[in-house]
């Protein structure tokens, strides 16, 4: 009896893993025409192979981005502000407030999107009305990210990269800056911070088995641990990194409908992995031959950590402003609610007026909501484009770039 004391918790862990997989499948099962509507000829059969050169849009077109902006209780107003700072008619947006948020706050976000004249006219902003419960450090964050990606693949038309952000993120460049810079790079690249050097994470994240209450409960609580611990897998190599990333369309499609079942196998494994959002995507991309050489080891964020690092980065203030700009990163986190440095970013980097949109060639007059549709595919880059080009070209021009994938 003593030797079997771990049996019931282990069975419970396996059952919740199965529940997690079912929840992911259900998030895409509403789309019966999925395979037919998204490059069906290249991903319908197991024997198919992905050729990134033929499944990405040509560089002669203006790139298009698909954003997930997520938040929790009290983040409704922050999501609205971040959305306006990121908005461009060419892009697609999915907004999500988790189930901990009140029904009133979630409904207010839905009403806001439905009443904003610009969003109604362009039709590129969606709110996930049936919210998911997100547990910090748990796999429900992975599930929510994949859910949003599935929505964007089915309903978002053509786009080139998927970017996940939280309500505490904010851009440091305009969308014209970002799209202009991305136009000149291969569209199969995945910007995803990663390393196979797990160090202390092997003992404290890879070996423990955790349960995410968000898989079976309507009440938010922290993950909890069950016994016994497990060994590191030998069938695939583990990687870890940042939970924030910019993923190519081909890789997102592979995550949702991978021909060799690896994404689902790893999803089951990471269901019981502590801080799975910082490992699942990295482990998938670095264990698939077609994607190993598509990685750029950067999450495109400026994040300030204490020394030694703590569980969370510190909140950014005006004291961090200069370092933020000099990082050349297009995004930064974490920002507190109504942090004064956001106003400084709006005025000095984005040219955005309070509660307004960021000016660009599509929206040059910031005093009106008149859109010159003929200018939507014309870009007006500024100093932010130079900073971002410097950052990305530094990675791509590195003489050892081709040797630094998935190390």
Automatic annotation (TrEMBL):
Membrane topology annotation: Single-pass type II membrane protein
UniProt keyword annotations, A-Z: Glycoprotein, Glycosyltransferase, Membrane, Transferase, Transmembrane, Transmembrane helix
Keyword flag Manganese: no
Q: Which InterPro entries match?
A: GLCAT14A/B/C, Glyco_trans_14
Entry's transmembrane regions: 6-25
The cellular location(s) given in this protein's UniProt record come to: Membrane
Provide the primary localization. Answer: membrane
Matching PANTHER family: BETA-GLUCURONOSYLTRANSFERASE GLCAT14B-LIKE, GLYCOSYLTRANSFERASE
Q: What is this protein called?
A: Uncharacterized protein
The organism's lineage? Eukaryota, Viridiplantae, Streptophyta, Embryophyta, Tracheophyta
């Amino acid at each position: 009896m003593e030797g079997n004391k771990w049996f019931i918790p282990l069975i419970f862990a396996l059952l919740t893993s199965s529940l997690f997989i079912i929840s992911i499948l259900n998030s895409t099962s509403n789309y019966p025409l999925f395979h037919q509507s998204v490059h069906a000829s290249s991903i319908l059969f197991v024997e198919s192979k992905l050729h990134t050169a033929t499944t990405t849009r040509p560089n002669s077109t203006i790139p298009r981005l698909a954003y997930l902006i997520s938040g929790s209780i009290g983040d409704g107003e922050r999501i609205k502000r971040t959305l306006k700072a990121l908005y461009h008619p060419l892009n697609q947006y999915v907004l999500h407030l988790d189930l901990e948020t009140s029904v009133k706050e979630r409904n207010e976000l839905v009403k806001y999107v439905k009443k904003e004249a610009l969003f109604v006219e362009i039709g590129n902003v969606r709110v996930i009305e049936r919210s998911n419960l997100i547990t910090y450090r748990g796999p429900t964050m992975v599930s929510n990210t994949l859910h949003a990606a599935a929505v964007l693949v089915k309903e978002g038309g053509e786009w080139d990269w998927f970017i996940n952000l939280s309500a505490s993120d904010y851009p440091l460049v305009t969308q014209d800056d970002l799209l202009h810079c991305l136009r000149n790079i291969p569209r199969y690249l995945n910007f995803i911070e990663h390393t196979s050097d797990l160090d202390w994470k092997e003992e404290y994240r890879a070996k423990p088995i955790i349960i995410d209450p968000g898989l079976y409960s309507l009440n938010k609580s922290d993950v909890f641990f069950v016994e016994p611990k497990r060994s590191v897998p030998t069938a695939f190599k583990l990687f870890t990194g940042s939970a924030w990333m910019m993923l190519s369309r081909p890789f997102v499609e592979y995550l949702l409908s991978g021909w060799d079942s690896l994404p689902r196998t790893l999803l089951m494994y990471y269901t019981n992995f502590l801080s799975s959002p910082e490992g699942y995507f990295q482990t998938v991309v670095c264990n698939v031959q077609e994607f190993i050489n598509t990685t750029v080891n950067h999450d495109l964020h400026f994040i300030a950590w204490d020394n030694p690092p703590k569980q969370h980065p510190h909140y950014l203030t005006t004291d961090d402003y200069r370092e933020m700009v000099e990082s050349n990163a297009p995004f930064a986190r974490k920002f507190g609610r109504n942090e004064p440095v956001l106003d400084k970013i709006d005025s000095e980097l984005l040219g955005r007026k309070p509660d307004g949109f960021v000016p660009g060639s599509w929206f040059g007059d910031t005093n009106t909501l008149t859109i010159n549709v003929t200018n939507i595919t014309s870009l007006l880059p500024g100093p932010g484009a130079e900073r971002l080009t410097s950052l990305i070209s530094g990675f791509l021009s590195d003489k050892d770039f081709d040797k630094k994938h998935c190390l």
